[in-house]
DNA sequence: CGGGATCCGGCTTGATACTG
DNA sequence: CAGTATCAAGCCGGATCCCG
């Protein structure tokens, strides 16, 4: 393809496989998980505690999706009790960095956002 | 606070207002809408056609959330028939740029992702 | 044209219980 | 510890109808 810049709506088109991955990344728990792992390798229950609010099922599911996409590496040791470590792959780190860039940008402008909300809420009655 | 880098999981904490905004941005239709508007101002039904797949309700809802957060500006002309234009605010453009950066990064590595998926699926039976 | 209100089905999510 | 299986609930999102 020679599309110079294919940003925008159509990159999300249903047929586009990247949409799926993007959903894993930006989804409810994907971002949290990526963020937690961005600071270093973690075990399953450590992750569970750090992400806070995630259920075992959702964490497991999220981790599997991210692992399948090659963003997270899973290292299982067949010891007893079992020990499994999760860490970002280089690819995962690249994704996490961009994600964090977005997050920080929004965070840094939250006062603007809050001000905008207040204006909006005052102009119109409620909601 | 003196946290040098507060990325990661806790920026998403439930009490954190930015989590909400992030969800609007990264949500199912938020990204699409931001992407579509990234190319220029659009009317409601134009947007609806370009985003493709979005229902009136969801588009309306998405637009309201983004407007409330100060990312999108709504310009309504009291003509008949009514004409309403939506466009990104400077803040919205900043967010859209980061989002697009993330999207393009993932898109550019989709071959890696696809390869990782294949490896994953072959190693384990199915899913 | 640009929405709001309502209804409703389904997928996602979260407890809980169980396994290795 | 590190998950999987099952099940019920709830919210998301779509279709439809309506209004200005």
Describe this structure in words.
Two copies of one chain form a homodimer. The first copy, chain A, is mostly helical and about 130 residues long. The first copy, chain A, contains six helices and three strands. Chain A has helices spanning about 15-25, 30-40, 45-50, 55-70, 90-110, 110-125, and strands spanning about 40-45, 70-75, 85-90. The first copy, chain A, has a three-stranded antiparallel sheet with strand order 1-3-2. In chain A, β2 (about 70-75) and β3 (about 85-90) form a beta hairpin. In chain A, α2 (about 30-40) packs across α5 (about 90-110). Chain A is elongated, with a radius of gyration of 18 Å. Mean pLDDT of chain A is about 85; it is low at about 1-10. Chains A and B meet through α1, α2, α5 and α6 of A and α1, α2, α5 and α6 of B.
Uncertain residue segments of chain A: 1-11
Q: What percent of residues of chain A are in strands? A: 5-15%
Class by alpha and beta content of chain A: mainly alpha
Question: What form of chain A results from the Cα inertia axes?
Answer: elongated
The proportion of residues forming helix of chain A, as a percent range, comes to 55-70%
What letter string, H or E per element, gives the SSE order of chain A?
A: HHEHHEEHH
Biggest interface pair, counts: A-B, 54 and 55 residues
Radius of gyration of chain A: 18 Å
Q: What's the topology here?
A:
The structure is a homodimer of 127-residue chains.
Chain A: H1 17-26, H2 30-38, E1 42-43, H3 44-51, H4 56-68, E2 72-77, E3 83-88, H5 90-108, H6 110-123
Antiparallel strand pairs in A: 1-3, 2-3
Helix pairs in contact in A: 2-5
Chain B binds a DNA duplex (20 and 20 nucleotides) through residues 28, 43-45, 55-61, 76, 80-84.
């Amino acid at each position: 393809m020679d599309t110079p810049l294919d940003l925008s709506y159509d990159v999300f088109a249903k047929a586009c496989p990247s949409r799926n991955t993007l959903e894993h990344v930006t989804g409810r728990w994907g971002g949290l998980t990526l963020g937690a792992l961005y600071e270093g390798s973690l075990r399953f229950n450590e992750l569970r505690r750090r992400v806070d609010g995630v259920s075992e099922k959702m964490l497991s599911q999220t981790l599997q999706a991210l692992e399948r996409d090659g963003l997270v590496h899973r290292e299982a040791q067949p010891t007893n009790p079992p020990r499994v470590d999760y860490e970002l792959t280089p690819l995962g780190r690249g994704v996490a960095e961009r994600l964090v860039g977005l997050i920080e940008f929004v965070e840094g402008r939250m006062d603007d956002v809050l001000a905008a909300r207040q204006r909006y809420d005052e102009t119109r009655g409620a909601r």
